[in-house]
C-alpha cells in the first residue's frame, strides 16, 4: 500500500487544501498555515487567495515524523524565547512539565498576569507570547491590545489559549486577526508544531 493510500489521499492527487492537510497531519488549520509560511510544506495560492498544498510534501513530513527523524532545527544554535501568561498554578505546572520534554532549543518564562507579562516584555521581548485571557490585575485582552498598539511590538507572535467561547471573546471586543486562538485544554500538539515551524524560520534567517 502506498503512502498516498495510507494517508487517505488519491494516488493521482497532487495538491490538497489547508483543511485536508490539517486532517492528514492531525494539527489545526493555523498550524498548517504557519508550516506553509515557514517552508515546511510546499504550497501556492490560487487567484482567490486559497492555499493549495503539495500532497507529497505532507506525506514526506508524515514519514519523517513517523520514523522519528530528528527535527531540522537542531543544526543551528538558535533559541526561541517563549513567554507564557497564565494565572492558574496547575496550568503553569503543566506547561513547565510538558515543554521540558520537548527536545527543542526554547527558553520559557511564565508570568501570572497581563501586568507581569507587560513588565517582562518591557525587559526582554519574547519571540512568542502564549496568553490566557482571564487573568487578575490586567487581563489578556488589555495586554494584547497594548502590545499591538506599540509599533515595536506590533508584530510579536501571539497565541491565545483560553476557556472562553468565541462568543465570549467577541463580547469583550474580540482580538486582532493575526492572533491564533485555541481552546482549553492546552493544545500542546499544536503549540509544539507552531514552535517547530518558528524555529525553522529562525534557522533560515541565521543561515542567510
Describe the structure.
By secondary structure, this protein is α/β, with parallel strands linked by helices. Helices cover 43% and strands 17% of the residues. The chain folds into two domains: 3-66, Multidrug-efflux Transporter Regulator, Chain: A, Domain 2 (Orthogonal Bundle), CATH 1.10.1660; 75-207, Response regulator (Rossmann fold, 3-Layer(aba) Sandwich), CATH 3.40.50.2300. The chain has nine helices and eight strands. The chain has a five-stranded parallel sheet with strand order 5-4-6-7-8. A three-stranded antiparallel sheet has the order 1-3-2. β4, α5 and β5 form a beta-alpha-beta unit. α3 packs parallel to α9 (188-207) and α6 (114-123) packs parallel to α7. The chain is globular, with a radius of gyration of 18 Å. The relative contact order is 0.15.
List the helices and strands and how they pair.
Blueprint: H1 3-6, E1 15-16, H2 18-25, H3 29-37, E2 43-45, E3 51-54, H4 55-66, E4 80-85, H5 89-99, E5 106-111, H6 114-123, E6 128-131, H7 140-149, E7 157-162, H8 166-171, E8 180-183, H9 188-207
Parallel strand pairs: 4-5, 4-6, 6-7, 7-8
Antiparallel strand pairs: 1-3, 2-3
Helix pairs in contact: 2-3, 3-9, 6-7
Amino acid at each position: 500500500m502506498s503512502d498516498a493510500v495510507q494517508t487517505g489521499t488519491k494516488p493521482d492527487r497532487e495538491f490538497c487544501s489547508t483543511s485536508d492537510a490539517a486532517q492528514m497531519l492531525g494539527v489545526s488549520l493555523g498550524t498548517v498555515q504557519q508550516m506553509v509560511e515557514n517552508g515546511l510544506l510546499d504550497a501556492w495560492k490560487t487567484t482567490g487567495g486559497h492555499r493549495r498544498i503539495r500532497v507529497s510534501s505532507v506525506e514526506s513530513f508524515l514519514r519523517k515524523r513517523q520514523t522519528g527523524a530528528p527535527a531540522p532545527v537542531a543544526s543551528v544554535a538558535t533559541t526561541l524565547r517563549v513567554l507564557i501568561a497564565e494565572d492558574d498554578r496547575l496550568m503553569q505546572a503543566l506547561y513547565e512539565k510538558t515543554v521540558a520534554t520537548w527536545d527543542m532549543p526554547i527558553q520559557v518564562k511564565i508570568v501570572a498576569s497581563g501586568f507581569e507579562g507587560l513588565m517582562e516584555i518591557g525587559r526582554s521581548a519574547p519571540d512568542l507570547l502564549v496568553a490566557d485571557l482571564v487573568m487578575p490585575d490586567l487581563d489578556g485582552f488589555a495586554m494584547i491590545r497594548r502590545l499591538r498598539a506599540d509599533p515595536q511590538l506590533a508584530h510579536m507572535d501571539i497565541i491565545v489559549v483560553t476557556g472562553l467561547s468565541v462568543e465570549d471573546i467577541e463580547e469583550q471586543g474580540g482580538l486582532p486577526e493575526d492572533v491564533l486562538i485555541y481552546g482549553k485544554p492546552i493544545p500542546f500538539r499544536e503549540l509544539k508544531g507552531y514552535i517547530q515551524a518558528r524555529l525553522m524560520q529562525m534557522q533560515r534567517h541565521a543561515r542567510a
